[in-house]
Amino acid sequence: MTTPNAPATDGTSGGAWIPWLLVMFLVSLLVAVCVGFLKFQSGSIATAAVLSGGAAFAGSAMLCLGVVPVVHQLRRRR
Questions:
Q1: Considering only CA atoms, which of 13, 18, 23, 19 is closest in space to residue 60?
Q2: By three-state DSSP, how is residue 7 classified?
Q3: 55: CB partners within 8 A, 6+ apart
Q4: Which has fewest Cβ within 10 Å: 1, 18, 39, 53?
């Protein structure tokens, strides 16, 4: 019985994901803090500002994670 060949890696597997995930997390956190601060400064109550910041964090984190497969596909087309 033979084993299938391992898929070719492009340098983004293993330990290379950790720094990128950290960058994505920090960018999303910065977006969330800015949105929460702006919402609070506009006169909203603190709970509304926290909820808006959380939504901004989730949205920017999903956007960051969604960009990675698109970039991989664009690099393969070259």
A1: 23
A2: coil
A3: 35
A4: 1
At position 6, the amino acid (one-letter code) is: A
Residue type at 51? L
Measured distance CA(50)–CA(78) in Å, rounded: 43
Burial letters for 27-58: b for 16+ Cβ neighbours within 10 Å, e otherwise?
A: ebeebbeebbeebbeeeeeeeebeebbeebbe
Q: For residues 61 and 42, give the distance between their C-alpha atoms in angstroms, rounded to a whole number.
A: 24
| Residue given tokens 């949205």 in the structure block | 59
Which tokens belong to 62?
């999903």
DSSP string, 37-50: HHHHHTT--HHHHH
